[in-house]
Amino acid sequence: MSTTLSARRPGTASSAGGRAGDAVFSALSLGAGILIFAVLAAVALFLLLQALPTFAAPAAEVTGGKGFLSYIGPLVVGTLIASVIALLIATPVGILVALYVSHYAPAKISKPVGYVIDLLAAIPSVIYGAWGATVLAPALVPLYTWLSDHAGFIPFFAGPASQTGKTMLTAGIVLAIMILPIITSMSREIFTQTPKLHEEAALALGATRWEMIRMSVLPFARPGIISSIMLALGRALGETMAVALVLSSGPMIGSLIRSGNQTIAAEIALNFPEAYGLRLSELIAAGLVLFLITLVVNMIARAIIARYKEFSGAN
């Protein structure tokens, strides 16, 4: 007994070993954090150094003959348009599916649905791109023709519709399917972590299930939902092969149902293998712009989450 008690007293060998373990784990965690920061800084430095020839080159020598800003501008717009379309489609669908799985569906249905949603995240992007180019794009041609005939007064649907279906709207739909598992899975996990006492209290006060979700679940899950949306946006911004297969390369146009447009990631993927000299520097400079866009998106997400973290619904 005395031996057992002495082993538990502060200052014994067991306590010293625990403090040593804490110190080692803390050092490893700090080292991992520094390593990630160092890798990120190295990537940024590499992109900047390799892109310098593009920034210093005369405007006439850059692709398009009007300078780097004229070259990268349409690519940035195309990247943002495709990502916004994907978010507009995937966000409400993902949140509704997550709510159904977590609060409405019985267990025998919610588990298979959850498995199927998670399985979507495991499908390679090239498969999505091939499906979008060969199946989805031709199937959407009649819809694009109808939009051109009946909604052509809207700039997004102006002009003759694409006869191949390889348009920015098709790319946005494919991206929406690709990011749907991210939003759904993260939102579902957050919804299931809502304090049961809050849900039961709302129901006990006479609230309907939807009112309980609106007053208890959604406020608690708001930071997590924002995180899932921003993570999905990062995936959409950087997606390469699916967009490269679905989009028809061409000049930037305002309509979503005409062939053309391009994104930064797809531009790099399609041209990098054969690029050299200044052209290679241009593509790396485009990658630097995409890197900065992703960094800004994550900073904005952090700011939004920090704004709401004081009220999580569980405080």
UniProtKB/TrEMBL annotation:
It comes from Kocuria varians (Micrococcus varians). This is Phosphate transport system permease protein. Part of the binding-protein-dependent transport system for phosphate; probably responsible for the translocation of the substrate across the membrane. It is a multi-pass membrane protein. It is found in: Cell membrane. Residues 76-301 form the ABC transmembrane type-1 domain. One of its GO terms (biological process) is phosphate ion transport. Gene3D superfamilies: MetI-like (1.10.3720.10). Its main location: membrane.
